[in-house]
Fold each of these.
Amino acid sequence: MFRQVGRNRIELVQGDITRQQVDAIVNAANSALAGGGGVDGAIHQAAGPSILEETRRRYPEGCPTGSAVATRAGRLSAKYLFHAVGPIWRGGTSGEDELLRSTISACLDLAEAYSCESVAFPAISTGAYRYPLDLAAQATLETISARLAASENLKLVRMVLFGEGAYGQFSRVLESLALTDVSNFREGGAVGSDVDSTPKRPLPSE
C-alpha cells in the first residue's frame, strides 16, 4: 500500500527491514545503544559487529528517548543506520505521543542532513515497549506525512511492518490520512513539548 504526499511517497510493506534497498534504515534501539531483541537484534546481527563498535565509540553516553543517532550500516545494503529511541508505553500519561513524534522527526532530521532520498522505518515502540499499534500508527504517519509534504530531497519513506496486525493498523491510518490536510498534522517537538529532536552529535563520514 502507498500514498502520494505531493511528489513524495509513503509505502507500507510487510517484510525484513534488513533487506530493504534504501539509503537509510531506522533501528528501534534502546537508550544504551547496546543492541537487544526484536528489530534491534535483527539489524545488529545482519549489519555485523562494526555497528556496536561504532555506537560505543561515538556515543558512549547512549541516546535519550525521543532522539536518534547515525552510524554506518555495516554489511547492510543501506548507507546509514539511524538508531532511534522511542518511548516505553506507560498508559499515555507520560508524554509518549510527543516523544514518539520527536523520535520520528529526529530520524527525518538525519535523513535530511545526509541527503537521503529513501528511508525504511519499523513500527517504533510497538514491540517490547508495548505502544498501542493504532496510536503509534497515527503519530508515526502524521509526522512522516507532514515532513514529506515539505521535503524536496526525501522522496520515499517505507514502513516495514511485522505481521498482519501491524500492517492492518497502519493501513487504516494511512487511508484516513489520505482524506486529511497534512498541514494540520503535528511533527515532533509539538507545542508545549520540551523535546529537542535536533541531532547533537556529528554525523559519521561516508
Note: Residues 96-113 form the longest helix (18 residues).
Amino acid sequence: MKRFRDQLPAVIRPDIIPTQDGMVITELDSVPGGIGMIACLSALYADSEAGGLSLVGGLEGMVRGFAAMLKGQLLQHAGCVAILISEEAKDYRPEMTWLAARLRAIGLDAYCVEPRHIRFTEEGLRITSEGMDQPIALIYRFYELFDLPNIPKSELVQYAIKKNWVAVTPPYKPALEEKLVFGLLHHPALQPFWEQALSREVFLHLTTIMPRTWILDPAPVPPSATIPGLAIGGRPVMNWRDLATATQKERHFVIKPSGFSELAWGSRGVSVGHDMPQGEWAGAIDRALDAFPRTPYILQEFHKGRLYELDYFDPVTGEMNRMSGRARLSPYYFVSGEKTELAGILATICPADKKVIHGMKDAVMVPCVVAGQ
C-alpha cells in the first residue's frame, strides 16, 4: 500500500549477545513478543524489592512506552485499540491480554482480540466480543506478514486500512521482516551508499556490532570470482557448497531463514555449523540453497556469548540453584513522534551448553536493572 511508503515500525527490538569482545546484534525484530511479559515481570520484581531496584525504563516503562507509541499512531481516528493476535502467535495472548488491561487502567482503551472478534461494517471495523461492540481506531498487528493467508478476515482488515477507516502499526512492509538487511549492510558494493545515508561513523559502528552476513543465493559464481568477504581456513570461497567440507573449527557460522516464514521466528530453522555433524551441516546448506525461491536463508558469523553466573529459583525442588549461562539482551524501543524511548530490557539466560539463546524452558528470563543499583 502506498500509504506505508514513508512509514516505519514504531517498535524495534534488537537481539544483543554480550561477548568477550563486546556486544553483537544478531537480529532486529519489529513485531516482538515479550512486551507484556517484561512489563509484568518489572512490576513483580519491583514489588518484591519494595521499589529498591532501578529498572531500565522504570517500573511502568514498558506500559507507558507502549501506550505513548499507540497514541502516536492513532492519528485522527476515533475508537479503541485492537491488539490483533493470530493463531500462529497464540502463545503470546496471555501477556498481551494482561498488557491491554494495564493500558485501560491508565486511560487507553485497548483490547487483545482474535481475528474472529473483528466485525466489518460500511463505516469501518468493530470489536464484537463478550457483549462489547465498539469501533476500532488502531490495529496493533501481532502477526507477521507471511501469516496473512492463514488469518481469518485479513483481507477485510487490509481493505479497511486501504480506505483509511483504521490505522495500523507496524506497517505492512514485508522487507522489514527479513534478515537480508544484515547481508546488504556488509555488501562491499553498497558501502558508499551506507556511508552517505548513515554517515561513515555510524556505518563503521553498525558493521562492527552486526555480524558479517551473506545471502545464500544459489546463482552460480563465475570461475574468476569469489564470494565477498567469505573465507574458510584463509581460502576465499567460490561456491556455497565449499562450506560443506569445512572442518568443525572452520564452520563457526549460523544458517537461518531470512524471514517471511513460520521457520523464521523462535529460533526455528536455525543450524549452527560447529554444533552439528558435517553431514547434517552439508544438508542444511543444500536445503537453504534449494529454498531460495520461496524462503531465502542467510549465512551469519557465529559469535559466542560470554559466560555469566546467576542464581535462580527451581519450582520443582523449591530451592535456589546456581547456573552458568550465556545471555541475550533484548531492549525494547518505542517511537512516539520524533522521540525514541528505551522502555525496558529483557535478559534471557540459557545454560552454557546451548548454542542458540531463546526463551526455552531451561532459560531464565528477567528484566534488567541499572548497574550498581
Note: Helices lie at 35-48, 61-73, 93-105, 154-162, 180-185, 191-198, 200-209, 278-290.
